[in-house]
Please model this.
Amino acid sequence: MTAETTEGSGSTTGAAGTESPESPAKGAAPGPRALARRRRRATVARFWREYRRHRAGVFGLAALSLFVFVALSAPLTVGSDVESVTNAPGQPLESPSGRFLLGTDQFGRDLLGLLIWGSRVSLLVGLLAAALSVTIGALIGITAGHFRGWYATVMMRITDWFLVMPTLVLAIVLATVLSRSLGTIVLAIGVTTWPTTARLVRAQTLAVESRPYIERAKALGGGHWHIMSRHVLPNVMPLVLAQTTLIISSAILAEATLAFLGLGDPAVVSWGGLLQDAREAGSVSSGDWWYLVPPGVGIALVALAFTLCGRAVEAVLNPRLGVSR
Model:
């Protein structure tokens, strides 16, 4: 009996020893990827918990979500035929009524439908222009803070030149020289609004590269790309994110300004283009307020929503700023 028991025990142990490499024990520590995912989830949860404490930021996020929803649902709610001049449903410059809640434009088109459809272009141009601006600024700021020397000197002098030059004037020059399209507007805004981001990112890069773990990474053989992508970029990303939300509002205002000056794409409906059409139709002198007020209010509200979100994000990522809630 004792031998059989010992033999059975040995067989059981052998089976368990065979299965253990395939299935890890229940108390085993999670792998590096699982730890990374857990840390990211905890970081996002902590960020959202701190963000909710800023009432202005929550209000801005709610307003921004509403604008984005309206813009994305525009093809279903108003349709692309709202831009048609030949099939306009009303008479030119009709005042607001039960049929047209915001009246009609100079061609008889529904202004409410145009306002909803134009939000797509204004938001898209603002997002793309801000993304281009932040990308250029972050690239120049990180490389200038990392390499230093003559390269940093040249880049910072170029940045200073763009800082002292009027941004709107440069954007108007680019929009005038190039073809009139949405791509031109995005390019004109993006390449003229990056210097502030470059300055901020370079300062943060210099602070990061002065830390001891950067010296250890260099001593272990880490190259320039490894240092910038694995150590510097993750530490400057919170600043880049906050800067992006702040630049979007400026980009939307710049797009509206260029479109109002007649430098936008005439075939595309945007809030700035609606203001330009209202000016050409003489709405200012004739008192057709419904043609002027809604696009202007839309631009102001979207810019305000992005600004509130940006200030809240900046306060969460850098509590020492002391931004009011």
Q: What stands out?
A: The CA atoms of residues 92 and 108 lie 4 Å apart. The radius of gyration is 28 Å.
